[in-house]
UniProtKB/TrEMBL annotation:
This is Mannosyl-oligosaccharide glucosidase. It comes from Cyprinus carpio (Common carp). Its EC number is 3.2.1.106. Cleaves the distal alpha 1,2-linked glucose residue from the Glc(3)Man(9)GlcNAc(2) oligosaccharide precursor. Residues 94-252 form the Glycosyl hydrolase family 63 N-terminal domain. The chain crosses the membrane at residues 40-61. It is found in: Endoplasmic reticulum membrane.
Length: 746
């Protein structure tokens, strides 16, 4: 036993198995190190993955948050209360001609208004089936527009078709809880040059907008005598269609009647539905006259109209009353509110005539007190022209409700802006029947002289559309009717794009009225209005300063300029409002735009003035103004100097000069206003400025009036060589500022 222990102790003989097991110890330590390093790398990888996922989701969240900003409205209290346009608050302005895109129609200032309107067509002529409804330059009318319109309670319009004239008149009468009653009177007279008395089909219609219902009441087989209806916004109502007569108190006339009652998938489809329902099977057989077949709506043909939407909940009632009669004739249409229970009489016949005459007298008196043109020596014809200019601006105001289509750099695709209303004037009923931000400030310069409260409402509507960034979509295309008139490439509004902040011009006018006549009732409400407006003005002003900043301190640059120097002679800057006015030949971030600098200078002074109320040119320029080789013409100032290398140059083969020479009334108004100012204050250039003011004012008035008398239209722009009107027409947007020039109201 002892030897064995010794051998084991000395290591002789058979190897000890335990000793053999201990020899690989060092390799096990290396393996352990490798295992620890592997675990470390795994842990690091897991950590990196977790961090990457957190960063990824954070980036998604941030992008989503930034993407939502463009459609997030500013959180400050709205300038207008939610019910400001309701019949409870503003009954006298609830109903109105708020559909500027149609020749004649009315609706309420509400989101889903029942709409009414007029279509017509000439029968038995070469142009059979030429339906008139929406204002179209392609209709080639001899002229149309409001002769008188007070913006509230009545209007008189003339539409001169090829061989007859339609006079459309309306009067409203207050009563009840839904804006009261109103009556239309349509008078048709043939032109003296017409070979024979035209036979005309008038189509009076009413349609709901998703909510509400209509019921047709038919007598004498095909004559629609009335329509009764109900809607959430109007309650119960009745529309009665009078029979045609030869005039007030005269006997009835032979007429044929047709009607259509169907469903509409949208207000933008009304024209198409009527066109697709027309049938030539109906006969017109007046006493002692030949039997002829005419076009009329067919009440059985359109029941399952091919354009109807599949979802019946989105369809709307649509009823048409057609009366076919030979000129001359007169027809009245009466709307009666179900809540007007104590009306003294119906607003028809002699009662309507008396009301019309009262409103006309009141309009004339207010016009003279507002503008004083008779006292200034203008002829009666010139004064009628000025009344038409004002009336077309007031009669061209629209009330829109819907959503703009917008996009920011963080939106992969266009998105819908929040729903909202907009009360605004429009530049042209035929070509631009919607709201434009930079046009509206000019519009309100004229309207503020007529109705200060209306201007405040319009400014508030625009500023209530501002988003959390301080951006207002510059072109308001809010519903299907508006979108149907806009090329698809102009529908999406991008939030980096601005428009001149001309609303500051209108605000400046309101502030001057406040300073001049603080005792007026309109001035008393001005301070609360400014308090609600100011936070939105502030964010709008700051948005310009941050998003439209130029390359150097206190410089500015319009975003959104075209970049293709191969396509354009000089790339356009639509966002500036001056479109193709020449700028740097190659757009870059180094540009500095002086016009935007001037707008910001104006805005900053008015902001300072507002802030004070709630708790401020060098005339060597005069030589250039009067130089015929630069700006001066016998018709007004050119938009671009005659000596400029881009004067009247085309941008492309199909892109004619726009702001490169023609005379624009809005810019001339600003020049006349400035000359009037410097010609009225002491200084070295007072006499020179006063002389230029008189000459320029006279030239503008004479030419715009001359063109109106010759063509029947106020035009978008005027040729700087001949003075002839050109562009879209009638253009009773800012071209109607000629009234302020005539009245010397600056």
């Amino acid at each position: 036993m002892g030897r064995r222990r010794k051998r084991v102790a000395t290591g002789d003989g058979v190897p000890n198995p335990r000793k053999e097991e201990k020899t690989p110890a060092p390799p096990r330590k290396e393996k352990k190190k490798k295992t620890d390093i592997g675990k470390m790398f795994i842990n690091i990888s897991i950590g990196l993955c977790i961090f990457s996922l957190i960063w990824f989701f954070y980036a998604l969240y941030m992008r989503s948050s930034l993407a939502r900003r463009v459609v997030t409205l500013h959180p400050s209290p709205r300038v207008l209360d939610a019910n400001s346009s309701s019949p409870d608050v503003s009954p006298e302005k609830y109903w109105g001609t708020y559909r500027p895109q149609v020749y004649f129609g009315m609706k309420t200032r509400s989101p889903r208004s029942v709409v009414t309107g007029l279509m017509w067509m000439r029968q038995f002529a070469e142009m059979d089936g030429n339906l008139r409804h929406t204002c179209e330059q392609g209709d080639h009318l001899l002229g149309y527009g409001w002769l008188m319109h007070d913006g509230v309670s009545f209007g008189v319009q003339e539409v001169h078709d090829r061989d007859f004239t339609l006079t459309t008149e309306f009067v409203k009468r207050m009563g009840g809880d839904h804006g009261g009653d109103w009556t239309w009177r349509i008078t048709a007279k043939q032109h003296g040059t017409a070979a024979s008395a035209p036979v005309i089909s008038l189509m009076f219609y009413t349609a709901t907008d998703v909510q509400g219902s209509l019921q047709a009441h038919v007598e004498e087989k095909n004559r629609l005598s009335s329509v009764t209806g109900t809607s959430e916004e109007l309650g119960n109502f009745k529309i009665t269609f009078g029979k045609p007569t030869a005039g007030e108190g005269a006997s009835g006339k032979y007429a044929r009647y047709n009607y259509l009652q169907t469903k509409s998938p949208g207000l933008d489809k009304l024209t198409d539905i009527v066109k697709n329902s027309l049938n030539h099977k109906f006969d017109f057989s007046p006493p002692k006259g030949e039997k002829r077949f005419y076009f009329a709506v067919d009440s059985y043909k359109v029941t399952n109209h091919q354009n109807q939407q599949k979802d019946p909940k989105m369809e709307s009632d649509f009823v048409v009353h057609q009366v076919t009669v030979q000129t001359p004739f007169q027809i009245e249409v009466l709307f009666e509110s179900g809540s007007f229970r104590e009306r003294p009489n119906q607003l028809v016949g002699s009662v309507l005539t008396d009301e019309l005459e009262k409103r006309k007298v009141a309009f004339d008196e207010k016009f003279e007190s507002s503008f004083g043109l008779q006292a200034k020596g203008f002829t009666s014809s010139q004064i009628e022209f000025a009344k038409a200019a004002l009336s077309n601006m007031l009669g061209g105001m629209g009330y829109f409700f819907g959503q703009s289509v917008v996009q920011s750099a963080y939106n992969e695709h266009p998105v819908l802006y929040p729903e909202g209303p907009l009360l605004t004037a429009v530049p042209s009923r035929s070509f631009f029947p919607r709201g434009f931000l930079w046009d509206e400030g000019f519009h309100q310069l004229l309207i503020s002289k007529w109705d200060t409260q209306l201007t405040k409402e319009v400014i508030a509507h625009w500023l209530d559309l501002i988003n959390i960034e301080g951006w207002i979509p510059r072109e308001q295309i809010l519903d299907d009717e508006a979108r149907s008139k806009v090329p698809s490439e102009f529908i999406v509004q991008h939030n980096e794009n601005a428009n001149p902040p001309t609303l500051f011009l209108a605000l400046q006018e309101l502030l001057e009225q406040l300073n001049a006549q603080p005792e007026l009732p309109s001035s008393q409400t001005m301070i609360p209005f400014l308090r609600r407006l100011y936070p939105r003005l502030q964010i709008w002003f700051e948005w310009f300063n941050t998003t439209q900043a130029g390359p150097m301190a206190n410089s500015y640059r319009w975003r959104g300029r075209d970049k293709d120097t191969n396509l354009f002679l000089n790339p356009k800057t639509l966002t500036s409002g001056l479109d193709d006015y020449p700028r740097a030949s190659h757009p870059s971030a180094d540009e500095r735009h002086v016009d935007l600098y001037c707008w910001m200078t104006l805005a900053s002074g008015i902001m300072a003035n507002v802030a004070r109320i709630l708790g401020e040119p060098h005339l060597h320029i005069l030589r250039d103004i009067q130089d015929p080789e630069r700006l001066w013409t016998p018709y007004g100032l050119r938009s671009l100097s005659h000596s400029d290398p881009l004067y009247m140059k085309r941008n492309t083969e199909h892109d004619a000069p726009y702001w490169r020479g023609p005379i624009w009334i809005n810019i001339n108004y600003l020049a006349v206003r400035a000359l009037h100012h410097y010609g009225s204050i002491e200084g070295p250039y007072k006499k020179k400025a006063a002389t230029l003011y008189q000459d320029l004012r006279t030239n503008l008035i004479n030419n715009v009036y001359k063109q109106y008398m010759e063509t029947g239209y106020i035009w978008e722009q005027y040729n700087d060589s001949t003075g002839r009107g050109q562009g879209s027409h009638p253009f009773t947007g800012w071209s109607a500022l000629i009234v302020l020039i005539m009245a010397e109201e600056y």
